[in-house]
Amino acid sequence: MHNIIIQQNLEIHGCRSSIYKQEGFERHLQEATYLYEGMEPNQVFPYWSVWFEELVQEEVTTLETNIKANVEQNAVRFIVGELDFDTDWDSYVTGLESLGIDRYVEIMQKAYDQYLVNVNVN
Questions:
Q1: Predicted local confidence at residue 16, as pLDDT
Q2: Rounded to an integer, what distance in angstroms lies between the CA atom of residue 88 and that of residue 93?
Q3: Among residues 102, 122, 113, which one has the least CA distance to residue 50?
Q4: Is the distance from CB of 52 to CB of 107 less than 8 angstroms?
Q5: pLDDT at 46
Q6: Can you give the pLDDT at residue 84?
Q7: Cα–Cα–Cα angle for 23, 25, 31, nearest 5°?
Q8: Within 10 Å of residue 27's Cβ, how many Cβ atoms?
Q9: What is the Cα–Cα distance from 107 to 61, expressed in whole angstroms?
Q10: What is the pLDDT of residues 70-105, one digit of tens each?
Q11: What is the model's pTM?
């Protein structure tokens, strides 16, 4: 189904080059985005409105930096097959726990809860 939609879009736009070759890769990505048209969320969460208590600002910054770096590095390792979901997932989660993921979620949840209180008050 996906390939049929892409092919129809190619014909409509008069594009004769194959999007499945390297030179058509960018076009392929563009065509793939059309599949999601009309599925955008009605609202975007205003993350810029969430504030952290002064006591945890440095902690959340350190946690976020370490966790994001770990997630990004391991995502690549999973994608390229260096890590296997079946055998390496538990150790990946354990690694996140050792970086303080539970504390990070706790801080984020508290900030989000406070945001909701502030929104409902105003």
A1: 53
A2: 9
A3: 113
A4: yes
A5: 82
A6: 95
A7: 130
A8: 19
A9: 11
A10: 999 999 999 999 999 999 999 999 999 999 999 999
A11: 0.63
Asked whether the beta carbons of 19 and 25 are under 8 A apart, the reply is yes
For tokens 């690694």, the residue is 95
Site of tokens 């189904």: 1
The helix or strand, by DSSP H or E, that contains position 16, with its residue range, turns out to be: none
Q: How far are the Cα atoms of 63, 86, 94, 97, 104 from residue 107, in angstroms, in the given order? A: 10, 30, 19, 14, 5
Query: CA torsion 93→41→65→102, rounded to 10°?
Result: -40
Q: What is the pLDDT of residue 53?
A: 86
Terminal alpha carbon distance of the chain: 47
**What is the per-residue DSSP string for 21-86?**
SGGGHHHHHHHHHHTTTT---S----GGG----GGGHHHHHHHHHHHHHHHHHHHHHHHTTSS-HH
What's the whole-number average pLDDT of the chain?
84
